[in-house]
Design brief:
Blueprint: E1 13-16, E2 26-31, E3 34-40, E4 52-58, E5 84-85, E6 88-89, H1 98-110, H2 115-121, H3 125-129, H4 132-158, H5 164-179, H6 187-195, H7 224-238, E7 246-250, H8 256-269, E8 273-277, H9 284-294, E9 300-303, H10 309-320, E10 326-329, E11 341-346, H11 364-375, E12 379-383, H12 388-395, E13 400-404, E14 415-420, H13 435-447, E15 450-454, E16 463-466, E17 483-485, E18 490-492, E19 499-501, E20 514-517, H14 521-531, E21 542-545, H15 555-564, E22 570-573, E23 586-591, H16 605-617, E24 631-636, H17 642-648, H18 652-666, E25 673-681, H19 684-697, H20 704-708, E26 711-713, E27 717-724, E28 727-736, H21 739-759, E29 769-774
Parallel strand pairs: 1-5, 7-12, 7-13, 8-10, 8-11, 9-10, 11-12, 14-24, 15-22, 15-23, 21-22, 23-24
Antiparallel strand pairs: 1-4, 2-3, 2-6, 3-4, 16-20, 17-18, 18-19, 25-28, 25-29, 26-28, 27-28
The structure holds adenosine-5'-triphosphate and zinc ion.
Enzyme class: isomerase
Keywords: ATP-binding, DNA replication, DNA-binding, Helicase, Hydrolase, Isomerase, Metal-binding, Nucleotide-binding, Primosome, Zinc
Catalytic activity: Couples ATP hydrolysis with the unwinding of duplex DNA by translocating in the 3'-5' direction; ATP + H2O = ADP + phosphate + H(+)
Length: about 775
């Protein structure tokens, strides 16, 4: 669905129902000539005859704005045009709770999208396709399976388990109450509050009595720092009102995950559900294993985009029906419906992948903070290198910062060594690794330790070139080079996906001598295989992990398993290997060419590079017994750079202070608030023209002087890769001193841009699409 983003046009529409439907009920409604899924957003007033379903947020609401009937809280007003009836209602499904609807409404408003668009986009696609009968069958099947499981669990509880079964029963009962639908006009609210463990059937209320026992299964004794953090968290959970978001600022390997596990155990013991967000799908299996091992008696489900549609629906229902106690997922899981949510964890909160980059461009991290406040549950943001926004909030006291500076087992952080590449004689083909680094790698091989080589560029070489003429392997459809992949002898564009066999000779002059320029992970792997050997002459076992080498289910997990089992001596990879992994035998991490991150036009590039390198360094020396020898090597042509100087001292606070000072003087976030207007067209002039016209519209808006006070609208510029798949992309930055100002302007301005787009239909004016990105991550 190519739903245009549209603000202000996409509030709920009114429909008729033959009986009162509780808010949060999934329905199918007519929209224009089509039938679309929708959600009852506001139940009609029970006193008005009960024939109005209230506002419905249809999936495509607003794409037919002429249909929009303003929401009339007291039922249809006499002057309103005839309402169309709801086609079907999925009454077997407990309605989506008030908190969930408020989260979605907030996200739609804040990120300037249609309500129905966001609401339906964040539900499992399969759910939208089910009809009442299919859903009924599915729920009946689940109920049967659940009965069997409850029997098993009650037996287990009798044998000494905790209050999980009780809380589950309460949730089941609540779901059942919600599912009766028409008889309970306030069913939605009833379901959410009944599902909260406040009733006698539930586990002890927060703060009642001493801390509940934590299941002891394979849990280490917490360190003093972990202990202190957990005590503070306990106090927060027991206090009245919404707790502040907590930044868990802990070194790599300080045991943050162990804190999540224990905080989760305490929430579970209170009968609550726990949501844990991780930045990348490929980090979910290992974390899932850790949680599953710890919480054997609890239901744990994953929610991410790599699930099959059927799995995603099943897991979503587990969460929504209150049957899953723990939900572990990537950014989309922030919208999971959790009737008894008690704790939100955002691991590696600084990670850019929490920002959705298409459609509704939301930040799952920011929404987690909002959701925590809304539902009055603790939010734990964990990082060794927090985002500067979060760090600033911790400085000003908006978030509570809890520190864990010490690595488990008092292991020191790896020593950081800068290799000054300007001092190393250039050889033909480029120096792969500095001699000192090569020697350090051989030391590890001799001791039977592992090394990680990190290069954030996949493929064999980023470009091929002809030795005779000016030909280079450009992409015909993008302003980018096509990357040479040697293994399957292709030239591939990483932007549009175009893949072709490598030509035998230069397509322009016929010269057979075309050569790779630069180095990607494939080439690094190949070169290392010839360079590295054990003391007895055996070649080193080199493996590679990047998006190319790990296609296919299970490949990545198998390869990671080989590293954990010691079957690999040197692991080469992209940022996929830098994050999260708890490798025990790695004592050397090297960044082969990190400088590329220093000179980006994006003001967040240094922040991202610093975090990535700190995180990569954190993969070394995680086993205290070997940590004394752990090293992080950086090959750089910029040895004096302040970023590296801070990295050598492991000094995130100094780096953050310097960056924040720069941002303050440049008026950049977190000291200002940004939105990007993007336009795409076949022709760059049309995209630029649209944005210029949009900028010209702003001062003509009603109340423009007040709206534009303290707001800067910059001239449109091409994006970093300006053309992708023959589409030109231009963006325009809008900067405001406060969030509220930015929101006010966008809410008034964007609706006018829909009209503008329709007007600009002339030759050379047409754009393909436009969108707004609030709090953009990449500039
Ligand atoms: N209290 C403890 N006693 C002993 N071992 C512990 C303790 N806490 C954590 N560990 C172990 O220390 C290692 C590092 O812990 P963990 O993975 O939780 O760190 P982290 O802070 O999440 O790391 P990173 O941010 O680098 O991913 C793990 O192997 C974990 O099992
Ligand atoms: Zn391309």
């Amino acid at each position: 669905m190519d739903a245009p983003q549209h603000s202000g046009l996409a509030g709920p529409l009114d429909y008729l129902a033959d009986r009162p439907l509780p808010a949060g009920t999934l329905v199918r409604v007519p929209l224009g000539a089509r039938e679309v899924p929708g959600i009852v957003w506001e139940a009609a007033d029970a006193g008005d005859g009960g024939d109005d379903a209230g506002g419905v947020a249809p999936a495509d609401g607003g794409s037919a704005p002429g249909q929009a009937v303003p929401q009339a809280p007291g039922g249809p007003s006499p002057s309103a045009p005839a309402l169309r009836p709801v086609v079907a209602a999925l009454e077997a499904l407990p309605p989506l709770g008030a908190a969930w609807r408020q989260l979605v409404a907030f996200a739609a408003g804040y990120y300037q999208r249609g309500l129905g668009e966001v609401a339906l986009a964040v539900l499992p696609p399969e759910l939208r396709r089910l009809d009442e009968a299919a859903l009924g069958r599915r729920l009946a099947r689940r109920a049967k399976a659940a009965d069997r499981a409850t029997g098993r669990r009650q037996a287990a509880a009798a044998a000494g388990g905790g209050g999980a079964a009780d809380a589950r029963d309460a949730a089941d009962a609540a779901s059942a109450a919600g599912a009766t639908g028409p008889a309970h006009a306030t069913g939605a609210a009833g379901a959410t509050s009944a599902a909260n463990p406040a009733g006698p059937a539930a586990a002890p209320a927060p703060g009642a009595g001493p801390a509940p026992p934590v299941p002891a299964c394979n849990a280490p004794e917490p360190s003093p720092e972990q202990q202190a953090v957990l005590e503070r968290l306990r106090a927060l959970a027991a206090a009245d009102g919404a707790p502040p978001a907590v930044l868990l600022y802990g070194s790599t390997g300080s045991g943050k995950t162990e804190v999540y596990l224990r905080a989760a155990a305490e929430a579970l013991a209170r009968g609550r559900q726990v949501l844990v967000l991780v930045p990348e799908i490929n980090l979910t299996p290992q974390l899932e294993a850790r949680f599953a091992a710890r919480f054997a008696g609890h239901r744990l489900v994953a929610l991410h985009s790599a699930l099959t549609p059927a799995q995603r629906l099943r897991h979503w229902l587990d969460a929504h029906l209150g049957e899953a106690d723990l939900v572990l997922g990537t950014r989309l899981a922030i919208f999971a419906s959790l009737p008894r949510l008690g704790l939100l964890v955002v691991d590696e909160e600084h990670d850019p992948s929490y920002k959705q980059q298409e459609g509704a461009r939301y930040s799952a991290r920011d929404l987690a903070v909002y959701r925590g406040r809304l539902e009055r549950v603790p939010v734990l943001l964990g990082s060794a290198t927090p985002s500067l926004e979060t760090w600033q909030h911790a400085q000003t006291g908006r978030y509570l910062r809890l520190d864990m500076p010490t690595r488990i087992g008092r292991a020191p952080l790896p020593a950081v060594r800068l290799v000054d590449m300007t001092q190393i004689a250039r050889r033909a083909g480029g120096t792969v690794l500095a001699p000192a680094l090569l020697a350090a790698l051989h030391e590890r091989l001799a001791r039977g330790e592992q090394s990680l080589l990190f290069l954030n560029r996949r493929g064999y070489a980023p470009v091929l070139q002809c030795g005779d003429c000016a030909w280079r392997s450009g992409c015909p459809h993008c302003s980018a080079w096509r990357v040479f992949h040697k293994l399957d002898r292709t030239l591939r564009c990483h932007h549009c996906g175009l893949s072709e066999r490598v030509p035998r000779a230069c397509p322009d002059c016929g010269n057979p001598d075309i050569t790779p320029v630069g180095r990607g992970t494939e080439r690094l792997e190949e070169q290392l295989a010839g360079l590295l050997h054990h003391p007895d002459g055996r070649p080193a076992r080199v493996a590679r992990i990047d998006a190319d080498s790990t296609r296919g289910t299970g490949v990545l997990q198998a390869r990671l398993g080989a590293v954990h089992d010691g079957e690999v001596d040197v692991l080469v990879g992209t940022q996929m290997i830098a994050k999260g992994h708890d490798f025990r035998r790695v004592t050397l991490v090297a960044a082969v060419n990190p400088d590329t991150g220093l000179f980006s036009s994006d003001f967040r590039a240094p922040e991202r590079l610093f975090a990535l390198l700190m995180q990569a360094a954190g993969r070394a020396g995680r086993d205290a017994a070997r940590a004394g020898r752990a090293e992080m090597w950086l090959q750089t042509w910029q040895p004096q750079h302040a970023l590296y100087a801070a990295l050598v001292r492991h000094d995130y606070p100094a780096f953050a202070a310097a960056q924040l000072a720069e941002r303050r003087s440049a008026g950049l976030p977190p000291f200002s608030h940004l939105a990007l207007l993007r336009a795409e067209a076949r022709d760059a002039a049309a995209a630029t023209g649209f944005l210029d016209a949009a900028a010209a519209l702003a001062p003509t808006l009603p109340d423009a002087p007040a709206l534009l006070d303290g707001v800067l609208i910059y001239p449109p510029v091409p994006t970093a890769v300006a053309r992708v798949a023959d589409v030109e992309r231009v963006q325009m930055l809008v900067e405001a001193g406060s969030r509220a100002r930015l929101q006010r302007l966008l809410a008034a301005w964007l609706p006018a841009l829909h009209a503008l787009r329709r007007e600009r239909a002339g030759p050379g004016q047409r754009i393909l699409r436009w969108a707004v990105d609030v709090d953009p991550m990449e500039i």
